[in-house]
Structure formats: C-alpha cells, structure tokens
Amino acid sequence: MKEVFIRYLYVFLPASCRRLLPLLFLASCAVIVKPTGGPPDKKPPFPRSYTPDSAAVNFKSKRIDIVFDEFVQLKDLNSQLVISPPVERTPEIKAKGKALEIIFREPLKDSTTYTISFGNAIADIRESNAIPDFKYVFSTGPHLDSITLSGKVTNAFTRTPEKGIMVMLYNGTDDSLPYKKVPSYFGRTGANGDYSIVHIKPGIYKVFALKDQNGDNKYEVGELMGFQDQLLTLDQNKKDVNLMVFREEGGRQKLKRAYQAGYGKIMMSFAAPATGMHVRPIRHSSEPIGEPVLEYNKKGDSLTYWFVPPPVDSIFLEVGDNVNVYDTLRYKLVTKEKMLSQHKGERYLLSAQSNAVSGKSFDLNNPFLFQFSHPVPGGIKDASKLLLTQDTLKPNLFAGSSFVFNDEMKRSVNWKGCPYPWKENTRYHLLVLPGAFTDMYGFTHDTVKADFKTPELKYYGTLKLNVLIDYGHYLLQLLDDKDNILREEKMDGRHEFLFEYLSPMNYRIRLVTDVNNNGKWDTGDYGRKLQPEPVIYYKDPITIRSNWDQETVWTIR
What we know:
Elements: H1 2-12, H2 21-29, E1 47-51, E2 63-68, E3 72-74, H3 77-80, E4 82-84, E5 92-96, E6 99-103, E7 113-119, E8 122-124, E9 134-139, E10 147-155, E11 166-170, H4 177-180, E12 185-188, E13 194-200, E14 203-210, E15 225-227, E16 232-234, E17 243-245, E18 255-262, E19 265-270, E20 278-283, E21 293-296, E22 302-306, E23 314-320, E24 325-332, H5 336-343, E25 352-354, E26 369-372, E27 386-390, E28 403-405, E29 412-415, E30 427-432, E31 448-453, E32 461-468, E33 474-479, E34 485-490, E35 496-502, E36 505-513, E37 535-537, E38 542-544, E39 549-555
Parallel strand pairs: 10-17, 32-39
Antiparallel strand pairs: 1-2, 2-6, 3-8, 4-7, 5-6, 7-9, 10-13, 11-12, 11-14, 14-15, 14-16, 18-19, 19-22, 20-23, 21-22, 23-24, 25-26, 26-29, 27-30, 28-29, 30-31, 32-35, 33-34, 33-36, 36-37, 36-38
C-alpha cells in the first residue's frame, strides 16, 4: 500500500519535487533509538608522567606533579594516605584536572627513601574507579633502599584479622620510643589484617603495632597495641612477621569523662581498666550518703556510681585508687522531686525482668534469674509476691527457696532452688507482684508475668568433646555464633567433656591458656614484656542437632 501511494505521488508531483521522494521513503522506515552511551568505564586512571620521575634518587624538589590519562579526584585521603618514614607535617595534596599536586611543607631527611602510599584514594571522576594501592617512591640519597617487611596482625583474644593497625619500626632500643617518638617506618593493615612495609634501610628495629586513635603516631594507654619480644634484624626481605594486638590493663590511668546521668547515678570513663577504684564524698552536709554501689562495664574502663543523694544542693566526690587521686568532681544534685516532675517517674521506676519470656521456650538447663534496672541491695522484699506454678500443680515452686545476688552490683539475683524443678514439655506460670523487690531509692516495679514452656528432651543434642593437649591450666569455653560464653570448664588434667541440653545450632569452641591459673584470660603488658595468654579456637563451627550425640576429638599440638 505504501509503495502504491509513493508511485501515485511520483506521477502527480512536479518534476522539481520528485527528487525528495527517496528521503521521504527513508524517513518512513527509520526507527528512532536512544543512544546507549557504550559500556561503562571500568579502568582506573593511568599515570602518564611524573615530575620528578618515580623512583628518583638524589631528590631535592619541594613539589611532585603526577599527570594521569583522565580527570581524577581524591577520596578518603586522610585514612588512606601513608607516608613512610612519617613526616611531621602532612604535605599539601590536591587533585587538579588530570594532575595530582604534592607540595612538601618541611625539609626531608638526607639519604632516606620515602614511600607515599595513597591506598585507593585516587580515582577517576566519572565512575570513581580507584587505582589500587598507588605508591610514589623516591630517595633523597644516591640509591633506593629495597628491603620489604610483611606479615599479618590479629586480635589476641578473638584471633580475627585487625584492619587499620599501624605496624611501626623504630631505629632504636629504648622501650619508651612508642610513647615519645614517631616511627622510622610504618605500614597499615588492610581488611584481611595483612601489612607490607617497603623500601626499608638495613638495620636493627623495634617492632610495634598500634591502633592510633588520635592520629599522633604515638602510643597512649587504652589504645589497641602489640609488640615483638625481640629486636628485628633486617638485612633482607622478611615475611610472616606476625603480631597480636590487645589492650593493656595497667599503665597510665586517668579519668577521661564523668557526668551525672540522672537521679543517684554518675557515669565515669577511664583511659584503662579501673577495677579497684574508689569514689567517695569529700565535702557535703552532715547527712551521710547511703552505701553506694560501683558497677563496672565488661572491659572495666567505665564505671557507674549508684548512690542515694543526701538532702543537699551539691556533692563533691574524690575519684582515685590506693595510690593516686585522679580527679575531684562537683555536681548540683538532681532531686527526686525534680526527677519525678520532669519524667513522671517512668525512667526511674524499678524495672524487673526475668529470663523467662512469654511465648518463648525456656531451656531445661537454665537457672532462673531476675535482672533489674537499678541496684536492689535488699534482695527479696516480700517473698509472698513471688509466684511460680506448674500447669497441673498449684503449689508455689518458689516457696521455701531463696534468691542470691548474681553480681557485685546487686542488679541480678539468681534463684537458689537448685536442682531446678524443670520438667520437659511442661508449661509454667510466673507472677511477680509490685513490692516483691525494692531498689536502693525506694522504688518498686510493675507486675511481671510470663507463661512459658520447656522443650521435650529430644529437642536437645549432646556434645562429647575430647581435647588432646599437653598438660597445663586451660579454660574450655563453649560459644554461640556471637561468641557469647554458654558453658565454661576448667581443664586441669581433664580431657573429656560432656555438654548436655544443647539447643540445635552451630557452636564454637575456645581454649584459653590460663598461664597463671587465675580462672580468666589475662591481656599483655608492654612494660613487663608479657604477651597476652594464648587463645585457640577449634577450626570449624560444631553443628548440634536435636536428639543427636555429637562426638569430636580436638588435637592441639
């Protein structure tokens, strides 16, 4: 039909217009398609020229220019940039079009090989393709130093790789060097914990690892650190110089922060673990402060001071240990009336929670406990308001038993009714009426209810573990998938262990070498040249299934 129409036009159109018909025909057949723009650019920028040349010797310039084949940008330079040996003042580094400009702001050392590592900070503008591990190397002397040191950094307790750790080399033997001076060379670990320091001058070095939190390239107590016991002689390339990092417990202590968190509650944080600290009033009215409660966090470097405020406007506190006084604090006290008027009491009413939750299964091997939002020094205030019954039995299972504090902070109590009367596949009812417990401020709690059920015995699995290791003091720990300790056994001479009533899931096994036999893991001490106590993990997760006995032999050499 289209062809007939065009012939018709050809016959009746004037001769001068007939030459346009082919264009009309082509237009009628064309399909308009949006340009695709081609495949995405996946190539990182490529350096075209260096001024001065890369790997130059007898370097005298105050400026470096690097020109790339496309426009570039700098991304996350502060965390990516590593200059080894370090300089006091970081050079001025700018991306200008296709060029990178580096301007030094201080004189460089003589006869020294410098490495400027940009990591992945240099990328193109269009697609943000980064140049992986880009470096510029030069020497202010007649040759480039060529020794390379590499290895891996792991956490001493978790044995997992540590990212962002500075591995530092000091050209000296003084143990105070990490505290006082920047290193002669350093490198930084990547995501897998690996590090590499290149272009090192032959010599004898002290090796130190540091998670530098304040960016001064020096060690402060509280920062993650590690060290090699012996000096390292570098006269050729060395691999597998591995380090473990940890936080020291001792060292230079100081009170970093303290604030009044509410009625009868002051929070403090310290530079190092602070167990054994004292907090005592030094000036107030004749009204005494009741017996305070000191609560430390798991690391021991934070402290909550619970106390009953006296009827005065302000309180003065001294914070210290048996040797030092670290600070004196003054606070205008929050009164109970002000607290109740501002918050209607909700924030400071005692919260009581049990580890039995409605609708959730309660393990047969679990103890029964209550946890509180505030210290409860008196324990049970009124035992008649504590009720635990079974579906088919009405007697109160709590009757005649007692509760004991589960911790020194008096914020957790444990039912002492052991062995526990739990039966398999059975429903239980918990009812705790207000007044059963009263905290140190005189507050009580709301009603606590829970209807829960125990599983059948066949729900559980069993792990029989045989640990083959030389004699010593060890702590054997059964962990969940989040490394929480579920069971712990001392194994002085023991090798066979039976873990019963295990819920079906994956578990991990950890062995802590308890060198001093004090029942806990001890970290290292740089001043005394003590490494952390060794920790060993079983290589794979252990899968426990319902109604199944899992037998595992762990040989440790």
